[in-house]
Amino acid sequence: MATKKKLDVDPYTAVETLRTALTEVGIVLPSLGVELASPDLKLVELGRVRADVAVQLAEALRRGGCE
After folding, report:
1. Residue 48 to residues 9, 36, 38, 45, 53: CA-CA distances in angstroms?
2. 6 versus 27: which is more confidently predicted?
3. Pairing of strands 33-34, 44-45
4. How would you label 24-36 residue by residue, b for 16+ Cβ within 10 Å and e otherwise?
5. Intra-chain end-to-end CA distance of the chain, in Å
6. How many CB atoms lie within 10 A of CB 19?
């Protein structure tokens, strides 16, 4: 199995990029943010969402984010 090189991405930039992309398809993740407890890991916290939002997100991924 080939390994993928990890990109050095700023987690704050990643959060804003994801928030913008989700907003473009009408999805809001209220808890989306940078996980501050382990800054060296650069984790993005997606948070909890209602079931209808999870389905909406799955549908957006299936159609490639295209309306």
Report:
1. 23, 17, 19, 9, 10
2. 27
3. antiparallel
4. ebebebeebeeee
5. 34
6. 15
Band of residue 3 on the pLDDT scale cut at 50, 70, 90: low
Is the pLDDT confidence value at 66 over 90?
Answer: no
- At residue 33, the 3 state secondary structure works out as strand
Q: Is the pLDDT of residue 5 over 90?
A: no
- In whole angstroms, how far apart are CA 18 and each of 1, 2, 8, 30, 39? 28, 26, 16, 12, 19
- Strand boundaries in 1-67, DSSP class E: 33-34, 44-45
Q: Which amino acid is at 12?
A: Y
Question: Which residue carries 């650069």 as its tokens?
Answer: 42
Please report which confidence band the pLDDT of residue 7 belongs to, taking 50, 70 and 90 as the band edges.
Answer: confident
